[in-house]
Amino acid sequence: MTANVLDASPAPLAFSPVAVIFDMDGLMLDSERAITDCHARAAADLGHALPPDYWLQMVGTGDAVCRARLVERLGEEAADALLARSGLLYEAKVDAGIPHRPGIVPLLRWLAGRGIPRAVATSTRRPLALRKLEKAGLLGWFDAVCTSSDVAHPKPAPDVYLLAARRLGVDPAHCLVLEDSPTGVRAALAAGMTPVQVPDMLQPDAQVRALGHRIVASLDEARRLLEARLASA
After folding, report:
1. Fewer beta carbons under 10 A from the terminal one: N or C of the chain?
2. Is 25 known to be catalytic?
3. Phi, psi torsion values for 160, nearest 5 degrees
4. How many CB atoms lie within 10 A of CB 231?
């Protein structure tokens, strides 16, 4: 995390969330680094000279977008071969349990202790999402898991966040969203929710900051925002 993620202290929350909805990759799990490393290793193994920052374009997108960008760059056959090789490398990482992002378990424990409902809204397909959460020991913390398999349109469309709110039985306006990527932040805003961004591999540029949402340096800081709000409620 770079030191200049934040220009100032984030504004206090203006409401007490009834539910909190979590992105998965890059927010709870350090999976963005894992998958980009697998893509880069697969590309090198297959003789494709792609710059390291090329893989940052994939962060926060779904499988279809990732494949489309690779097809545009390499052609369909080469893209599919790269993804197949990368997928095998990633499967091994998933089975070993992808590491947590710092602060996720204390935050989930704090929310559960206060009876605040929790859901996952991820661009990952459902079978893999459930497996990743289970292997990482996080699945049991959530009341609902919503994935790109469950909706017509992936992020930045609001579909997966609106589905999470419906499954929790909470009005979208009463939901707080925790996201790491600009794509996810836009999806949450489109759903009428309040996002708090915890940047990971993609740092917010001026265009992202102009969205006007809160940006914090860590999940611990996100928890402190919630603690301060609920203490004053």
Report:
1. C
2. yes
3. -70, -30
4. 7
C-alpha distances out from residue 72 to 41, 54, 69, Å: 19, 13, 5
Structure tokens at 112: 């559960």
Within 10 angstroms of residue 192's Cβ, the number of other Cβ atoms is 15
Q: Please tell me what DSSP assigns to residue 55.
A: G
Helical H segments across the chain, by residue range: 31-45, 63-74, 76-96, 104-113, 126-135, 159-168, 182-190, 206-209, 219-232
Query: CA of 193: how far to CAs of 76, 78, 110, in Å?
Result: 37, 39, 21
* Annotated catalytic residue, options 7, 23, 37, 159: 23
Cα–Cα distance for residue pair 115/205, rounded to 1 Å:
35
Tokens read off for 23: 């992105």
Cα gap 50→64, rounded to integer Å = 19
Told to judge if 150 belongs to the known catalytic residues of this protein, a careful annotator would answer no
Residue-wise pLDDT tens digits, 37-67:
999 999 999 999 898 888 877 765 667 888 9
Choosing from 7, 25, 37, 205, which is the catalytic residue?
25
| Rounded Cα gap, residues 195 and 213, in angstroms | 6
Structure-block tokens of residue 192: 């009428």
